[in-house]
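Reopening this ticket.

The earlier resolution said the output was attached, but the attachment link was broken on my side. Pasting everything inline this time so it's all in one place.
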Amino acid sequence: MRPFKTTFILFVLFIFILSIPSCELLAQQPANSANPSGGSGNAAAAQLQQLIQTGRAKNVIFLLGDGMGDSEITAARNYYVGAAGRLAMDTLPFTGAVTTYSLQEKDPSKPDYVTDSAAGGTAWATGLKTSNGRISTTAGTDKTAKTILEIAKEQGYRTGNISTAEITDATPAVLGSHVNSRGCQGPEDMKNCPQYKKNATGPGSNPLGSIAEQLIDHKIDVLMGGGKQRFDQTIDGGQFQGKRVLAAAEDLGYKVVTSAQELTQVSAGKQERLLGLFNAGNMSMEWNGDPAIPFPGSGPQKCNEFVRPSNEPALLSMMLKAIQLLENNDPKAPGFFLQVEGAQIDKRAHTAQPCEQIGETVAFDNTIKLAIDYANAHPGTLVIVTADHGHSTQIVPPQAQDSHASGLMSTLITSDKANMTLHYGTNTVCCSATHTMEHAGTQVRIAAQGPQAFGVLGVHDMSEIFHLMARALGAE
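Inline output:
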């Protein structure tokens, strides 16, 4: 990403960062290091400048809120902490924006202005734009593209990949698999990816297997989320032909857990791999409430919180366990790369479920708070928070009888004790009980702290995030 060259801007930013009490570099300075000449202060500023612009990271925590555009963030903020309140993600010191468009499959020279999670994820995971539906493969030519997780492994980092969706869904898939269609999640789901089947032969074949097979073949140290149904399928070729993917994972050294209770019993003392599969499909919601409906809409309502089944861990619990298993306390050794996805922000916006969407955003924000706290306590940790695309949520004025929006609406009672009306209107809502809203082609927020965090300032493309992380890992 392009560094700012203006000395004045740099000066202002350094003064701002130096004023933050929790700044990791200042925390390392001895209490008596200051001198009247200001020499140590200048040295600290220079060291800080080097870290945030060109520093190498001990750890990288990449947090992605799927479908978490600015409107989705604002709706969650208003509801949970009030319009004047701040979420954890709002406290990160460097903030910019990223463009999210994908490419057209038939003519990759032209943009597709509205991305899906597969193409958006491929961009930040590989540095290459592709067409919607593709998982870390190129548009038109179907070539595999190396991912940031694969690079992290080459650099000696331990790796983790967790999500509240199926772990084979688009966002976690882009880090550890390569297929031409995101739907090819298990060995029995390969209708659209015949050339990738384990038993594929002949010209053009690339028998890497389904997403589930490739994730374990990559020997990612920690994998957690939903999607057990994909791992219960039978492998049709290669080393583990005839076995279920779950059995193959165990042969590859994975400890498999399927409940929150089992997860708590996993010891951080052993360096074995962990595969946590806590639902057959996507994981359950943290909150629930009435869906948005046509005018006059549902509500005013307060959301029902803490409804997640006790046998499924919260995203925060999965992240905490992942860090415990991944971290390396040797100061001279590489640390870890961890991707954390709040997946169901997107999925509940698709179905116009405002309480579920906001509850998932709040749960995701809790993981951001954990990442910030961890980074403050562990100097050299890069934290990045972003989204892959925007979504359909809009905050609108109260709807009058004679003039109102034609989509789906729900009014929520916020922490300000005020009414907030949310509107979903990116798809036909006339006559179906199930409404599937569409993504939005807007740019989205990116925020960061730690080594290379300076690089998020300004407006960039989603694909540039890959290069920022690669520089932090020492690969570029």
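Reporter confirms the inline version is readable. Confidence is low (pLDDT under 50) at residues 1-38. The longest strand covers residues 158-166.
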